[in-house]
């Protein structure tokens, strides 16, 4: 009985390490998003850290329009980054789940 428990604990620790490694790797996964007309471009990591914002000079003339562009484009970029992040982490977590009787619902 304790052998199984020790094995499960080892597998959980291994999975935790893989999750941490995946989180670090996601810092280097870049996602590019732009407004529909290309006047605003944003690069964000899969961990949702903004890396760059490129604003066309035409947008600098109208603060309200620039704010609208920023909100819409940032939200799209964050949504895509979140999807990549959650998919990657879920994959690692699912792969490392030990076989615990009655816990099949998580697989």
UniProtKB/TrEMBL annotation:
<dbReference type="InterPro" id="IPR004401">
    <property type="entry name" value="YbaB/EbfC"/>
</dbReference>
<comment type="function">
    <text>Binds to DNA and alters its conformation. May be involved in regulation of gene expression, nucleoid organization and DNA protection.</text>
</comment>
<comment type="subunit">
    <text>Homodimer.</text>
</comment>
<keyword id="KW-0175">Coiled coil</keyword>
<dbReference type="InterPro" id="IPR036894">
    <property type="entry name" value="YbaB-like_sf"/>
</dbReference>
<dbReference type="GO" id="GO:0003677">
    <property type="term" value="F:DNA binding"/>
</dbReference>
<comment type="similarity">
    <text>Belongs to the YbaB/EbfC family.</text>
</comment>
<protein>
    <recommendedName>
        <fullName>Nucleoid-associated protein SAMN02927921_02676</fullName>
    </recommendedName>
</protein>
<feature type="coiled-coil region">
    <location>
        <begin position="5"/>
        <end position="32"/>
    </location>
</feature>
<keyword id="KW-0963">Cytoplasm</keyword>
<keyword id="KW-0238">DNA-binding</keyword>
<dbReference type="GO" id="GO:0043590">
    <property type="term" value="C:bacterial nucleoid"/>
</dbReference>
<dbReference type="GO" id="GO:0005829">
    <property type="term" value="C:cytosol"/>
</dbReference>
<dbReference type="Pfam" id="PF02575">
    <property type="entry name" value="YbaB_DNA_bd"/>
</dbReference>
